[in-house]
Amino acid sequence: MKVDYRELVHTDRVHGSLLHDPEIFADEMERIFVQGWVFVGHESEVKNGGDWVKRQLGNESVLMVRAESGEVNVLANRCSHRGTALCWEHNGNAAFFQCTYHNWRFGLDGDLRAVPFPDGYSKPKEDLGLDRAGQIAVYRGFVFANLDGLAGTIDEHLGPAGYELIDRLCEMSPSGKIDLSKGWIGHRVQSNWKLWPESDSDGYHVGFVHASMSASTDTYYDDVAVGGDAVKSSRAVDYGRGHLELDWRPSYKKELSWLGVTRDRVKEYYSALAQRVGNDLADQMLWDGPPHAFLFPNLFLGETVIAIVEPVSPGEMIHHHTSVQFDGADDAFNERLLRQTEAAVGPASFITTDDAITAERIQAGVSGTDRSWSSTSRGWIDLSRGLHREEINDDGVRSSDASDETTNRGFWYRYLDAMSGKDRH
Amino acid sequence: MISAELRAEVEDFLYREARFADEFSLEEWEALLTDDFHYWVPAGRLEGDPSKQLAYLNDNRARVATRIRQLQTGKRLSQLPNSPMRRVISNIEIEPRNDEGISVVANFVIYELAAQSSGELRVWPGQAQYRLERIAGNLRMSAKWIELVTAHAGQRNLTFLI
């Protein structure tokens, strides 16, 4: 039976069945991950011609490949002959992709180059290339793809805010470029994928879920996200189109809070940065830090961490993360970012481990809800916090106290558009 | 060829360390560490310079102290309750080094129950590399490096002492 998403997503609440219903999951993989724009990877992961990485976009395995021409392609990891996966390692370098079943050979652009015993085919080779993403867009190294090619433009998807958030991160690098080639760490979580956009952009839980961290170490989250004053000055922001930010900037009590050091420890980085942007701007950046933001549907800009949300099944997902490395910064600075990443994010970290357990507990809690209950009062998740005090500016940007569910609602507004076909042209 | 006495002493140490970890005897476990202890679980093989890589876990002595304090707060959700777990250690190879330290390599399998959430039984196979030092006559651990069989595949909750 066709799902009516308007019955399940309301402004102040969403239905628990959205987090476990297999039909809904199947719809999402098609409408969000095939028909919409998704984040694939970063150009710095494929620096040289022939470099490739394997990524999972919803149900589809793809290869992000640097062609010899320098162009980045996003190709289906699926032989156009009989469907065999071409690559099964995480990454590599290749002059071509060759299927192990009948040795069909494809170029880095996905074109079919050679087949054994070609006299058996009357079809032209041009018709037998690999499936490739219908649209690809690259912005400051971030590679986005829309598999079916019908999603509208990347400008419509990202909007001014999507670009500004990426800019704000990249501008903190001495060269204006970031590098994401330290590899991705996978955290396998027994929860629906949509609980991570919520967790990554939820400012209400920090003092509770992460109480053990506050109690055992000095953390800047105590200043920006825990307790009365902090959650009043930091902002939960919904830029529209599912792009969200927890804006800590108003709450930082000193420069470099977000890195947990004083300026004398990062002198080299500061002077390299100031050389490009000037001292005033560099000073401001040391205060503000990189953004804590989520770009619909699968990209988390987690300050000095980048994460990808990968759905596996209705109750299973992988949170992949890597450490931002600033191009042009000294080795000691970038190593500090690696150590900070290891402390904050991943299966053995001090922070997101407790988010993961919370997501698993939500999954356990909602898994008994049924879609048919949406006409009753049973099985709902309340997201009304702060609705009465949310502000909307002239650009339609909504913001409220950091502990308000403005960001959570922002995710679901865009979700409803995507699932009910409003994103389509 | 190492002596039977040294082998017995090293094996006793490893089994004790394993039991303290399995039972969340955190103070006892921490007392086995040297001041320069290094704890490392890479997302691949045990090779290369740990400081240049992004790992699951890469703790110096100060960070492992924080890890233990966090577990001791009683608020660590991902270990509330602690995972019931037992590990088996085998294939122990011992190599004394020139500087009086001892390098040890062993295989392990941990059986862990995810009591905090789904309740599934999780199996963690891998190799542990230890560096032991003799301090005031007693063995202490100055490094524990873990190579998981699943290192490349991503992990579930890894907030116990592996």
Structural overview:
The complex is a heterodimer of chains A (425) and B (162). With 425 residues, chain A is an alpha+beta fold. Chain A has two domains: 42-135, Rieske [2Fe-2S] iron-sulphur domain (Rieske Iron-sulfur Protein), CATH 2.102.10; 162-419, Naphthalene 1,2-dioxygenase Alpha Subunit, Chain A, domain 1 (Alpha-Beta Complex), CATH 3.90.380.10. Chain A has helices at residues 22-31, 154-170, 195-200, 206-209, 211-216, 221-224, 228-233, 267-277, 279-288, 331-344, 352-366, 406-419, and strands at residues 13-15, 37-42, 51-57, 60-66, 72-76, 91-93, 97-98, 105-106, 112-114, 135-139, 142-146, 178-179, 185-189, 235-240, 243-247, 292-295, 299-302, 305-313, 316-323, 325-326, 380-382, 391-392, 398-401. Chain A has a nine-stranded antiparallel sheet, with helices on both faces. Chain A has a four-stranded antiparallel sheet with strand order 5-4-3-6, with no helix packed on it. Chain A has a three-stranded antiparallel sheet with strand order 2-11-10, with helices on one face. In chain A, helix 8 packs across helix 9 (279-288). Chain A starts with 12 loop residues before the first strand and ends in a 6-residue tail after the last helix. Chain B contains three helices and six strands, in the order H-H-E-E-H-E-E-E-E. In chain B, strands 2-1-6-5-4-3 form a six-stranded mixed sheet. In chain B, a hairpin with a 5-residue loop joins strand 3 and strand 4 (102-113). The interface between A and B is large, with 38 and 37 residues.
